[in-house]
């Protein structure tokens, strides 16, 4: 008998009585007018910075102020008009080892916790939002939902090959519970919320 | 790097050693209580907290009752996604599977993010014996790895270490300045040290927080970003999970991700919740499903609930015994109350002391996000261990004596009276730390002149 068969038969033999899976439970949500302020509070609470802009071009202008040299920036959103565009998928994320800034589209935001969904479909290589020193996310305001329940209701059932909720810069408190921002991932996280699409 | 830390044999003895450093023990107690308080604040911000806990517990109940079906569904979908699925009946087989994959690729060095399962299986030691260099990349895990110790807490692996000790370790191993102990400085040094490892490792091992039967994908949660740095920069990604980590549907993540970080650290969500469904182009993705005693625990009516655990550590942070005895006292990969109910299933003889490392106050049960009745299980394990003959004779005899005393009112009154007299005449005896272990860290109160019963009878007469 293979281990697979052994495990499955033992589980079959020992499993407790099944109960139905809870479904369609309604949880309290964040109302539409409260979503933006709640999202801002959550994301800044996690050590991130929030800017609210009216169009993609104004993000370009803001980036110019933050990072004076465009060659420091890898920008995956051409309409922003600032920084270097990755030509195609990057086969080896290692080439980004010294990358300072990455600009990435977030396709969904969650008000209750400030998490932003980044899909592999929108980045040239999976490591991009982790390996940069400073992560800049762009999030349409219309894509902010109230809770995680709503987020999973909106995300496609056939998940992208890889996707991640990112809620601020990387962090650790492993040494004496002292919070340090900037563990292995970005030391700073910035989100620009687009008022219009 | 082997764990050279010698673990004292039973919890009480080990706790005594931990408590010798009073300043550290007090700090440890406060640091964990601080996290418990952060958890409380976070949970109060959710109007549906209790509904979430109940729902999570029911989802897990559904999982355990259908675990074979969900495992098969998960396997089928994961295979379709291009993930290679392996089954391991026990720790040895798990380790062997992982080593085989490593050797097939001719790899000598790998990075690993946090996985309590690999701790349970002692994977690091096994790989080291086979000439493979394993680098733990979670900051706390790297600290204990350099110290040649096991983690003392499932979420905060080096909570037992002071920053000066981390500074000294980093000075020796990473070349930081002698005497430097600033957490920000030390974290930056670890970041640079580990970044080099991420960039030069062809294989990464991660744990799994949730595996979704319906979609054949899995979710890994970190704050540091180390699981992602490792997995995305490696050619081969191996994810290791216990079979109980399955959830039926992606929408169930809405429930669990709302509970996990709030319960663990008081954050509304971990910084990264990564959803792996298919390997990247040119990458190989493996997933190892491990039983290692879980299918046996599943059949124990009083104990299978423990398999609902999502490894948040809330029960550990709140436990008055854990906070004042330290994680290493539990001599099992998972410390604290949850470890104490999981460990006896693995080895009853070796872990017979752990269900006694509790006051049965029930705080663990109150904070558990999936409503495991932890303190009841601790109590029930004591019964099982007693019946199986794993309770020390002295404890058994004193329990028996106490039992007959408490069930006989006359005997109880005589004992109470003679106790009060003795404490008045010979107070030194009751406070003698060698004779009375209860007096080790405390002074006995002054004995009352009369018992409540005497007082009641007297006053009742006056009022009648």
Automatic annotation (TrEMBL), chain A:
SUPFAM superfamilies, from UniProt?
A: NagB/RpiA/CoA transferase-like (SSF100950)
Domain LUD stretches: 33-194
InterPro entries assigned to the protein according to its UniProt record, in alphabetical order: FTHF_cligase-like_sf (IPR024185), LUD_dom (IPR003741), NagB/RpiA_transferase-like (IPR037171)
Q: Which domain of life is it from?
A: Bacteria
Q: Matching PANTHER family, A to Z?
A: LACTATE UTILIZATION PROTEIN C
**What is the protein name for this chain?**
LUD domain-containing protein
From TrEMBL, chain B:
The keyword Signal belongs to this UniProt entry's keyword annotation: no
> From which domain of life does this come?
Bacteria
Q: Which InterPro entries match?
A: 4Fe4S_Fe-S-bd, 4Fe4S_Fe_S_CS, FTHF_cligase-like_sf, Helical_ferredxn, LUD_dom, LutB/LldF, LutB_C, NagB/RpiA_transferase-like
Any Pfam family the entry gives:
Fer4_8
Domain (4Fe-4S ferredoxin-type) ranges: 300-329
- PANTHER family attached to this UniProt entry: LACTATE UTILIZATION PROTEIN B
Which organism encodes this protein? Adhaeribacter aerolatus
Q: Name one GO biological process term.
A: lactate metabolic process
Supply the name of the protein.
4Fe-4S ferredoxin
Question: Keyword Metal-binding, does the record have it?
Answer: yes
GO terms, molecular function: 4 iron, 4 sulfur cluster binding; metal ion binding
Instruction: Give me the ranges of the annotated region Disordered.
Output: 438-464
Q: Which UniProt keywords apply?
A: 4Fe-4S, Electron transport, Iron, Iron-sulfur, Metal-binding, Repeat, Transport
């Amino acid at each position: 008998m293979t281990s697979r068969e052994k495990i499955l038969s033992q589980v079959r033999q020992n499993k407790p009585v099944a109960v139905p899976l809870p479904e369609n439970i309604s949880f309290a949500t964040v109302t539409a007018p409260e979503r933006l302020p709640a999202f801002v509070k959550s994301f800044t609470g996690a050590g991130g910075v929030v800017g609210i802009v009216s169009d993609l071009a104004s993000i370009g202008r803001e980036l110019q102020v933050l990072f004076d040299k465009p060659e420091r920036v890898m920008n995956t959103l051409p309409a922003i008009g600032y920084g270097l565009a990755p030509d195609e998928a990057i086969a080896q994320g290692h080439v980004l080892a010294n990358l300072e800034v990455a600009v990435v589209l977030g396709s969904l935001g969650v008000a209750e916790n400030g998490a932003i969904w980044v899909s592999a479909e929108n980045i040239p290589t999976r490591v991009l939002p982790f390996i940069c020193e400073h992560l800049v996310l762009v999030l349409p305001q219309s894509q902010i939902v109230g809770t995680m329940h709503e987020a999973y209701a909106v995300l496609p059932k056939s998940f992208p090959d890889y996707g991640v909720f990112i809620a601020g810069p990387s962090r650790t408190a492993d040494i004496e519970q002292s919070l340090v921002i900037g563990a292995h991932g970005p030391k700073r996280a910035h989100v620009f919320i687009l008022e219009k699409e | 790097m082997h764990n050279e830390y010698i673990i004292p044999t039973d919890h009480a003895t080990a706790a005594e050693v931990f408590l010798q450093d009073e300043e550290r023990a007090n700090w440890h107690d406060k640091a964990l209580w601080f996290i418990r308080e952060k958890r409380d604040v976070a949970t109060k911000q959710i109007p549906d907290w209790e509904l979430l806990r109940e729902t999570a517990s029911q989802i897990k109940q559904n999982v355990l009752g259908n675990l074979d079906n969900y495992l098969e569904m998960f396997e089928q979908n994961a295979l379709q996604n291009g993930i290679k699925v392996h089954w391991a009946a026990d720790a040895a087989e798990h380790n062997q599977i992982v080593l085989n994959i490593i050797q097939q690729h001719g790899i000598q060095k790998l990075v690993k993010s946090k996985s309590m399962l690999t701790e349970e299986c002692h994977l690091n030691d096994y790989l080291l014996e086979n000439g493979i260099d394993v680098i733990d990349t979670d900051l706390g895990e790297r600290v204990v790895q350099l110290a040649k110790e096991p983690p003392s807490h499932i979420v905060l692996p080096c909570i037992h270490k002071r920053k000066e000790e981390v500074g000294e370790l980093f000075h020796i191993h990473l070349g930081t300045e002698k005497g430097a102990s600033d957490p920000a400085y030390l974290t930056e040094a670890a970041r640079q040290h580990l970044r080099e490892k991420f960039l030069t490792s062809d294989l990464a091992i991660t744990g799994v927080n949730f595996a979704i039967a319906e979609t054949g994908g899995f979710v890994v949660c970190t704050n540091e970003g180390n699981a992602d740095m490792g997995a995305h920069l490696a050619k081969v990604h191996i994810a290791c999970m216990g079979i109980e980590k399955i959830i039926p549907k992606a929408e169930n993540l809405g429930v669990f991700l709302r509970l996990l970080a709030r319960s663990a650290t008081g954050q509304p969500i971990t910084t990264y919740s990564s959803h792996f469904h298919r390997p990247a182009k040119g990458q190989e993705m493996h997933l190892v499903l491990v039983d290692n005693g879980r299918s046996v625990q599943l059949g124990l009516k009083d104990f299978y609930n423990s398999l609902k655990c999502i490894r948040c550590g809330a029960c550990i942070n709140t436990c008055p015994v854990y906070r004042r005895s330290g994680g290493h006292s539990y001599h099992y990969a998972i410390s604290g109350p949850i470890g104490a109910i999981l460990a006896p299933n693995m080895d009853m003889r070796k872990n017979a002391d752990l269900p006694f490392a509790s006051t049965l106050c029930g705080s663990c049960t109150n904070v558990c996000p999936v409503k495991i009745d932890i303190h009841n299980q601790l109590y029930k394990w004591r019964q099982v261990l007693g019946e199986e003959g794993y309770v020390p004779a002295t404890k058994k005899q004193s329990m028996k004596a106490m039992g007959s005393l408490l069930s006989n009112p006359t005997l109880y009154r005589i004992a109470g009276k003679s106790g009060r007299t003795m404490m008045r005449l010979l107070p030194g005896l009751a406070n003698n730390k060698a004779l009375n272990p209860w007096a080790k860290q405390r002074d006995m109160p002054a004995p009352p002149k009369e018992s409540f019963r005497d007082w009641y009878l007297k006053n009742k007469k006056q009022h009648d």
